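Weekly modeling sync, notes
Attendees: AB, CL, MP (scribe)

Item 1: holo prediction request
CL wants a bound-state model with zinc ion before deciding which constructs to order. AB pointed out that an apo prediction alone won't tell us much about the pocket. Agreed to run with the ligand included and paste results into these notes for async review.

Input as submitted:
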Amino acid sequence: MARSNRSVVWVGARTLEIQERPIDSPGPNDVLVQVMATGICGSDAHNWVSSSVSRQLILGHESAGVIVEVGADVQDRYVGQRVAVEPGFACLKCEFCLRGNPNTCANLKYCGMDPTDGTLRQYFTCSAHMAIPIPEDMSWEEAGATQPLAIAVQLGRRACLTANKTLAIFGCGPLGLLVIAVANAYGVRKIIVFDIEQARIDFAVQYGADIGILSPKNDASVEALTFAQDFTRQVIREHGLDQGVDVSVEASGAEGCAQMAITILKAGGTCIQAGMGKQLTAVPLFLLTAKELNIKGTVRFTPGCYEDAIDLVSRGKVDLKPLITSTYPLTKANEAFSAQHARKDIKIVIMNQE
Ligand SMILES: [Zn+2]
Ligand SMILES: [Zn+2]
């Protein structure tokens, strides 16, 4: 039976084409996955609007599906197995890979990241170890949101999110929401979220945040850092946060939030910088010294993050369903990407076989 391999291909700014692409036959250590669902996110939308992708690129990197062929040397995967796909091709040889950090591999190729083709197609071939088994009762829509949850798990590792900690999250987009879910699963004591949109705050509180606060706008009459310090001091006082929070997550990419994420920390606290987008330059580094604060970055995921994410969903510790607000057939990818770019949905999942 001849298989079609309809693929979502960037051909120009805001223009996708559904193209028929060849199926890569699996090597001895590979599996061929029939892709069932692919979540799309801000980085996909970024590619979509770009006019400078180097070639006609298949987009997508958040996928799950069924193994339909296994390479001759693959022992631990089988045809018919349901899997989530890790979209990073790490070299497994460089110093970062050997240290256990393939997320910062010096030679990393990543699905849907120019110039590496992505997973928004009907069939995708990858190393067997990149296909992580998922349980039978996990829906394809949820499985297609495993990758962003794995990113939140990695953030939780970087932040050492554990019981009894207090957490502030700046930005209630998909990452902020997934961090709420992971933090609750790990027994974090109190979660305070900030955003500039009341609707997003309301959703975050419904989804498990303890306190939601509308970020104030600085009309520029007050010096930026003073504004941040005054505001966070007031929040700390009003919400009984003692000396501040243990962990803050900057997931908005806004300059003012980057400052607040530092000034809201108690001594010894950790700020995780996760917001992408424009460069944040006005970070008050001098405040780090006296309180021995930490600032850490986080990117993608490390070994075991997918397994942790799948475990959290399958045991009902994290519910991804409320986040998946729309699904589209692959043939309507253009509509899905423009909806993603308009940011009206929380999470959009494309059904690859439809
Ligand atoms: Zn993504
Ligand atoms: Zn490497």
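Recorded for review: The chain is about 30% helix and 25% strand.
Action items: CL to compare against the apo run; MP to circulate these notes.
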